[in-house]
Amino acid sequence: MQGGVENLAAAALRLLFSLHASKKKKAITYTCKNHGGASDVASPINGSDTAWLLVATALVLMMTPALGFFYGGMVRAKNALNTLMMSFSALGFVGLAWAFFGYSIAFSSGSPLIGGTSYMFLRNVGLGAQGTIPHVLFFAYQGTFAIITAALISGAIVERMRFGPYLAFISIWSLVVYAPIAHWVWGGGWLSKLGALDFAGGTVVHVNAAAAALVCAVVVGARKDYARQAILPQNVPFTLLGAGLLWLGWFGFNAGSALAANGTAALAFVNTMLAPIATLVVWTMLDLVRTRKATAIGAATGIVVGLVAITPAAGFVSPMSGIIIGAIAAFPSYYVLLYRATTRLDDSLDVLAAHGAGGIVGALLTGVFASKAWNADGGDGLLYGNARQLGIQAIAILATLVYSLVATYVIVKCISLVTRLRSDAREEGMGMDFTQHGEEAYSRGEGALLLLERRRDS
Q1: What are phi and psi of 33, to 5 degrees?
Q2: Helix, strand, or coil here: 211?
Q3: Residue 5, domain member (yes or no)
Q4: CA–CA dist 358, 211 (Å, integer)
Q5: What CA–CA distances, in Å, run from 50 to 55, 130, 337, 347, 361?
Q6: Residue 360 pLDDT more than 80?
Q7: Fewest beta carbons within 10 Å, which of 36, 103, 316, 319?
Q8: Mind giving me the DSSP string for 56-113?
Q9: pLDDT tens by residue, 187-207
Q10: Beta bridge partners of 40
């Protein structure tokens, strides 16, 4: 009797596993309209690809709070909360702008310069297939890129830009600057047709954000204490934590950009591991040679620079090339950072050095090391007999820089005509946490409430 029960249980288990295997092999299909809206087309939704993109979307979304901690550790204690809020608020304001308008501008059918209106307010964005994943998931994944790109800019204007004008700026900028450039490269625009290679955002995200950060730093102006007294980071462990979480999220950023659970995703994943490793080693050695001290802030910055540099190349180059790109990228970013510190440019958290220099180097080296042997859908670079690719990469960088610089300047100046961009000297001295949010990151005594009562009495 016992043997019969065991045999029956074994048969049931075999049947269960066979049904599960057959479900995995069977393609799931949804009916959706193509971009022209002319006909209904049955497209396969792949369960494995969908599962990976669900995870990748969550990882990239996590990067924006991680950026807040990375930046928040490097400012003074009286501005820590405001710096965190500059990242967290992008989740809401840029996220909503993306859902209403930005996604359509970037990814709907339109001209070579800008997308159309067919996806505005998420019209025609449903469960139908976009590649092998649901369209609505593709929308969400791309939205996480828009959010963190806008948040990156805050590193150049922390500790002095008023919060209201900042919210207006990132909302408008995500629509006027980010979305069109995303369309040029990823949405079928003119750079895509030219053959520019940008796997996960070297130009669209990093060069673009760095150009905008430079404009904002110049127009808003330097902090009142800049170059007059030492401005020390308030919590270096926060910065290290932020760098670690950014690295974790970047696996979704780069490997997720394959939009599938396949060999290209695996390649991008491995390159995302190796390039920052190389940058971290080189950056640490540069620190030791120059000062005989390996700083924690330097290590965190080196990791981010490596991640930035490999972003455009992650799915196009071999792992050894990824290590070389990471190692090379350390040098220009390191010395741009040192040079910037000798100038009057108050790019407070060195967005220009990390994302500008790192992004440009990464985009150019993509045109050197890209190989169709590793990604047949990509292209060969200079080392594989295609010097033209390096020129195309340079054009993409130049176009992104020019448009982002000019458009950002116009946006910031227009906002300045309506309201004051920066806090006055008294507000800046009290700290942006209290003057912009009525709170403090670290309470002392009764904290902000005590300060508020004193302000009323005065």
Answers
A1: -90, 145
A2: helix
A3: no
A4: 12
A5: 9, 11, 40, 39, 32
A6: yes
A7: 36
A8: HHHHHHHHHHHHHHHHHTTS-GGGHHHHHHHHHHHHHHHHHHIIIIIHHHHHSS--SS
A9: 999 999 999 999 999 999 999
A10: 33
* 148 part of a folded domain: yes
Euclidean distance between CA atoms 397 and 89, whole angstroms: 28
Residue 414: both structure tokens together: 């227009």
- Is 433 in contact with 439 (CB distance < 8 Å)? yes
Core vs surface per residue 128-162: b (16+ CB within 10 A) or e:
bbbebbbbebbbbbbbbbbbbbbbbbbbbbbbbbb
The pair phi, psi for residue 427, each rounded to 5°, is -65, -40
Q: pLDDT tens digits, residue range 271-327?
A: 999 999 999 999 999 999 999 999 999 999 999 999 999 999 999 999 999 999 999
Residue 281: CB atoms within 10 Å: 17
Q: Which of 245, 149, 152, 244 is nearest to 200 (CA)?
A: 149
Reported in sequence order, the residue ranges of 92-196 that DSSP labels E, i.e. its strands, are 129-130, 133-134
Residue 38's alpha-carbon distances to 32, 115, 135, in angstroms, are: 11, 18, 17
Radius of gyration of the chain (CA): 24
For residue 116, is it within any domain?
yes
What is the domain count for the chain? Answer: 1
Residue 296 in any domain: the answer is yes
Per the CB < 8 A criterion, the answer to whether 406 and 214 are in contact is no
Residue 277 Cα to chain centre, angstroms: 19
Residues in the chain: 458
Task: Supply the range of the domain harboring residue 296.
Answer: 44-431
Token representation of residue 247: 């690295």
**What are the structure tokens assigned to 58, written together?**
């969550």
Q: What are phi and psi of 130, to 5 degrees?
A: -120, 100
Main-chain phi, psi angles of 153, to 5 degrees: -60, -30
pTM, two decimal places: 0.88
The rounded distance, in Å, linking the Cα atoms of 70 and 349 is 10
* Encoded tokens for 426: 């008294």
Give the H or E element holding residue 12. helix 2-25
Amino acid at 447: G
Are the beta carbons of 139 and 220 closer than 8 angstroms?
no
Query: Can you say how many angstroms the Cα of residue 188 is from the centroid of all Cα atoms in its chain?
Result: 20
Residue 12: both structure tokens together:
């049931």
- The pair of structure tokens assigned to 108 is 């709907």
